[in-house]
Design goal:
Two copies of one chain form a homodimer. Chain A is of the alpha/beta class. Chain A is built from twelve helices and eleven strands. The first copy, chain A, has two domains: 3-173, Rossmann fold; 182-206 and 232-362, Up-down Bundle (Dehydroquinate synthase-like, alpha domain), CATH 1.20.1090. The longest helix of chain A has 21 residues, at 213-233.
């Protein structure tokens, strides 16, 4: 069974195709614009598993298919490695029609997307996400970026892919910690947008953990649909789209504070969602039972429910400092995504004292 | 007298304001969105002359105004120096509303524009071009970029400024070679779009060289209007906009072949326009008298009318090689802007043998 989720963004519209084994099928790519050359960007972990399959699926469409392999890890999501994509494009005399394929997780997708946005001021690209996290989050919505030593995703572009191919069968080879990290973004869509999906997750978390194909297909599809609905209304993140960052304000502080790569993105978001739910509770928006529901779901997904201590002298101060330089903050004011009721979120500032209490209560 | 040229690009529309002494007037900037912080990006040649004036004009609008100075020259239009803009933005905790001001020529404008396009995936920016070249060309149309060791402007974005302030009085301090280089882009607009402007240039070249204020105002305004008309129809350079590259295919080869900075951009374009006119003639499109008219105009502007010899063994081969990696080429096929008749241009490939003859005839 193959699902198609349309992303409606005018002349930048595209489709997300979801199914098992579809990465290796030439039919998955027929809608792409014609070009002589393709460049597959992948990493040294993913390419040995799926590089040949993708190359074979594309062989009839492109007369030359080049490849760039990046090292595997968030710490390589920087200019130096982005440059290696530009080097490959120029050394192979790739023109403006060359199609870039991002075969890998969020790091590969973000870097390939930003390279595609910037090479000759824009060439087409395709996402072939191979992690659960990138299938349900980073491959949808057109955010591309690299990190700066002073902040994550600080340099990038809004740039839409021409196609996203989510092959569910590749998730079987994912390390359990990576898979759990992806579940954090799946869980997120319930509290912010869909109380029914939140209940479905509570009923089906064990099936998801076991990678039951039907459960997985539903979770990925519903996640993409919700993200597509949000992004379709607010492509450039001027308003509504910010709710997708539920758990991310605290989560980014955790990632940055621990040093990128120590906590996985989804692990930071897992603990961050519990903190954001606790903040919502202390703001009088949701009851304590909701916080407990979310904490349990995060725990069942195999994710941390408490944030790490980043500074034993002034832990809350360190979190606040890190959150203030986050690019969602405005004029130094931190914008928190809070849950107004299960299935509905909004963005607002919060008093420092209250945030400090939340951090003190939610870190260990 | 202040002129306003509207650039109509839907929700990315903006105005070019043209006049004498307007850089230093607070009134020039009233239409900008409000923000707490501004960052002026300039270079070590321009900032000592106009940095304080701009800062004063902006003082009432922004509570903090930061500054980054780049070294002066095309060879610094690279990632390393782009990074210094990001460093300044992050060190000063600039948020998404921070307005960037590009105070300088094309290099400063291109780098500031690309930094603004990429910082947090896009912040507002204003062009305050201080060279004739940047006033009539690079500040209009939203092309931003940095160079790659293997090619000029290979990495960049289409990103529109919120405002362009063209102060004609700053041109008086421009070195004569820089001023002449700007005239190349002014001349360009005649052959590609406006035979009447071409005649006006032939009648008024001496006044322009003498920087007569009225002549200068007319030339800058008409250049911006023509560019605005072209860009308004084809923002992303899928078709018509390519005619703005008249003379640039040969010109870029000259710049790259000599090493960036040896020939000024407008010098390459000057010789390149004569070569492109000669090619148009040999393709049977225009008569020899037109080539002669253009050659004379380029010469009167103080620009070279012949290209340099890039390789004494196979000069034409070297030009062809350089032109094939230009980002306007498609699948290795070079796209030339040719003049169909004075005031009308189009883009097409040409036989290698014919191009070789043109290069042989036009280099010394």
């Amino acid at each position: 069974m193959t699902y198609k989720v349309p992303i409606d963004l005018g002349d930048r519209s595209y489709q997300i195709v979801i199914g098992s084994g579809i990465l290796a099928r030439a039919a998955s790519y027929v809608a792409l614009p014609s070009a002589a050359k393709a460049l597959i960007v992948s990493n040294r972990t993913v390419a040995p598993c799926y590089g040949d399959s993708l190359r074979l699926a594309l062989a009839s469409r492109y007369s030359s298919i080049h490849e760039v392999l990046l090292p595997d890890g968030e710490q390589y999501k920087n200019w130096e490695h982005l440059q290696s994509i530009f080097d490959a494009l120029l050394h192979n005399r790739c023109d403006r029609n060359t199609v870039l394929f991002a075969l890998g997780g969020g790091v590969v997708g973000d870097m390939t997307g930003f390279a595609a946005a910037s090479y000759m001021r824009g060439v087409p690209f395709v996402q072939v996400p191979t992690t659960l996290l990138s299938q349900v989050d980073s491959s949808v919505g057109g955010k591309t970026a690299i990190n700066h030593p002073l902040g994550k995703n600080m340099i990038g572009a809004f740039y839409q892919p021409r196609l996203v191919v989510c092959d569910l069968s590749v998730l079987a080879t994912l390390p359990p910690r990576e898979f759990a990290s992806g579940l954090a973004e799946v869980i997120k869509y319930g509290p912010i947008a869909d109380p029914e999906f939140l209940r479905w997750l509570e009923d089906n978390m064990d099936r998801l953990i076991a990678q039951d194909p039907d459960a997985l297909a539903h979770a990925v599809r519903r996640s993409c649909e919700i993200k597509a609905w949000v992004v379709g209304q607010d492509e450039k993140e001027s308003g509504l789209r910010a709710i997708l960052n539920f758990g991310h304000t605290f989560g980014h502080a955790i990632e940055a504070g621990m040093g990128y790569g120590v906590w996985l993105h989804g692990e930071g978001v897992g603990a961050g969602m519990v903190m954001a739910a606790e903040l919502s509770h202390r703001l009088g928006l949701v009851d304590g039972a909701f916080v407990q529901r979310l904490r349990l779901l995060v725990e069942r997904a195999g994710l941390p429910t408490k944030g790490p201590v980043l500074d034993s002298a002034d832990n809350a101060g360190r979190y606040l400092e890190l959150m203030r330089v986050d690019k969602k903050s405005e004029a130094g004011e931190i914008r928190f995504v809070v849950i107004d009721e299960p299935g509905r979120a909004s963005v607002r500032p919060a008093p420092d004292d209250l945030v400090r209490d939340v951090i003190d209560a939610c870190c260990a």
